[in-house]
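Hi V.,

You were right to ask for the full record rather than a summary. Here it is.
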Amino acid sequence: MAFKRLNMFYENKKQETTEIGSAGLETTASSARAVKVVVGESGNKALFCYLAVWSIYRHGNGMFRTSDLEADLCTHFVYAYLGINETTYEIASIDDWGDNKHENVGMVAKVVDLKKENPNLKVLVSVGGWSEGSIKFSTIAASAGKRRKFIDSVFNYLKAKNLDGIEIAWLIPTMRGGTDEDKANFVTLLEVRLKLS
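Predicted structure:
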């Protein structure tokens, strides 16, 4: 299926509504969240909203908590970021307090709780990001055993946390310590994930 992708950043909670390009979609402005709109061939629209763990550490108007989220604002919430344990090659928390302990349960659980208000909402986690770099992904993608270990840990994490999916934010294959084989290995990593799902 072909998709049109539109990316935008917006600020200032609930103060303005912005029309996004020719897709004719509207979103309510919110506090420094990234939004990705995906329009499928069938015309179905998906609005992906990203929530970064570090948003709870900002001061003043820049602070953004899970209690600021509205369950019906987006079709998908993506929680960023989880990382990779470089010894076990399993999915791992980068910020254990933010992910698992903030407000006694952690931000991941708080975002998943939004499904109680909106049963159609999908909640995903993003693994990687700039801080995680490329070396861990390169190592995992190059080895069948490490790919399997990583993927098994992802499925176990998704099931344990009642999550709907994952985004792989490998920044950037073949660079930042990666290898020339990263492009092909990244495809293999994703193909293996599809076969196991």
